[in-house]
Amino acid sequence: MTKHTRFTVLIALIVALGGFLMGFDASVISGVVKFIEPEFKLTKIELGWSVASLALAATLAMLVAGPLSDKFGRRLILKYAAILFAISAVGSALAPSFVALVVARMIGGLGVGAALIIAPMYIAEISPAHLRGRMVSFNQLNIVIGISVAFFTNYLILKLGQSEAAWAQDLKFNEWNWRWMLGLETLPAIIYFFSLFIVPESPRWLVMQGREEEALNIMNKVSGQEQARLDLAAIHESSTQESGKKDLPIAELFKPAMRLVLTIGIIVAVVQQITGINSVFFYAPIIFEQSGIGTDASFVQAIFVGLTNLVFTLVAIALIDKLGRKPLLAFGVTGIAICMFVLAYGFNSATYTLSEGSLADLPAEIDNEQVSVLVDKTYQSDLQYKHAISDALGEEQAKQFESDLITAAIDMNPTLILWGILGFVACFAVSIGPVMWVLFSELFPNNVRGLAISFVGLINSAISTLVQLVFPWELANFGSAGTFLIYGVFAVIGLILILLLLPETKGKSLEELEAILVKHQ
């Protein structure tokens, strides 16, 4: 590895710590929802809102993050994002009410939106073409590491809450379990903020500001003097083609010249979220509980989800500049569709029969006389069984003990569900997870890149918000089988559109791609 490559990798890894915070902040809620639903007496939509509020705020941040970074620089916006992450972590941990928790989560969402847009943009702008795919994928890698760490720390805190150790009891891991889960993010947020002080500004942004000498000094460190001069000339030529248009209206994105790249960007942005990835990441323990394995096992299997995501993201990083973007997307989205249909089949085949003998295994707080009306009756779907539980115990107790009652009654193959979820995550992680952000950083021309990535990122985040918000409601109204069937159908539609419209972008400079995909008037 040359000194230029080492410098680029170091800077990319530091900037990509924003991805770690985004992944941790987003997925840590997966361990929280089980505890806040009964504590705050939430409806299913309120439960969804506790998860989706972060994505909604991220969506709003995406409206302004790109343009603000075009005006003030990539690095400054990332520093403010780090501050927002820290404020959110402390506020969430100390939240006295559901509303306070949502407000704190939305503050973190503003940081998520900024980091999600600016980090891959910065990395793409500082990386040489032959390394760009892998460098940008560092951000996705850090996102999945953050997700994995959140799953692990959630499980660790759950087990510490069951510990009889004096120090664990003094720190109230049992009473404050979900507060500890949310508060841990404070430390990496502080580390990220101070690490950004050694990161230089984006050379392409400096050129846009007329600061070419500063840009050249940075590019010398990235690729050497000869290549830096060539890259600077290409950037300068691309930037001056649209001189005088620094404050671009959004109408610029809808001109005929931008039609192809914008359509591709929107399709990829929608498909990445509409196939249900954040339902799995943010509700993993709830999904696994639906297969009847119990709370502790569901948290363990959530760790498997994080590790699978991490391993296959590494595979994607190794392959993205070798196989290309389109082959990875085609393979991955095909696998996503298959796995969703497997999950729909697995949950559809489940039956629920509460036997007389299984009553002894239920928590002591459950009145056996109340649930006796369910004994020896077979229910053909989770919807039928949950409605029967609610009728027998009342809505509040049904929510509290749903996992125990499902575990006691279900007859299905939970291993099929585990492999279906892990297969889905693997296919996502090796394809549309990291590839989407690489494509976003490549497709759009220099002069509108900030605005364009903000726009398609906004759409991506809006779909994510919707998916997260309605998932508990979908489970309650369509059942697990119906919910995953819907995701599978969306995956098939997305696959067809990707195969028809997406070109290959690997190995081409940003300026070459602009010349190919965008027709300048």
Written overview of the protein:
By secondary structure, the protein is mainly α. The protein has 2 domains: 3-199 and 241-347 and 415-517, MFS general substrate transporter like domains (Growth Hormone, Chain: A, Up-down Bundle); 351-411, no CATH class. It is 76% helix and 1% strand. It has helices at residues 3-15, 17-27, 29-39, 44-72, 74-93, 98-126, 132-161, 166-170, 177-183, 186-195, 203-208, 212-223, 225-240, 259-274, 277-289, 295-319, 325-348, 368-371, 382-393, 395-409, 414-429, 432-443, 449-477, 479-501, 510-517, and strands spanning 351-353, 378-379, 410-411.
Task: Break the fold down into its secondary structure elements and pairings.
Blueprint: H1 3-15, H2 17-27, H3 29-39, H4 44-72, H5 74-93, H6 98-126, H7 132-161, H8 166-170, H9 177-183, H10 186-195, H11 203-208, H12 212-223, H13 225-240, H14 259-274, H15 277-289, H16 295-319, H17 325-348, E1 351-353, H18 368-371, E2 378-379, H19 382-393, H20 395-409, E3 410-411, H21 414-429, H22 432-443, H23 449-477, H24 479-501, H25 510-517
Antiparallel strand pairs: 1-2, 1-3
Helix pairs in contact: 1-6, 1-7, 1-12, 2-6, 2-7, 3-4, 3-9, 3-15, 4-5, 4-6, 4-23, 5-6, 5-9, 5-10, 6-7, 6-22, 6-23, 7-9, 7-16, 7-22, 12-13, 14-22, 14-23, 14-24, 15-16, 16-21, 17-21, 17-22, 17-24, 19-20, 23-24
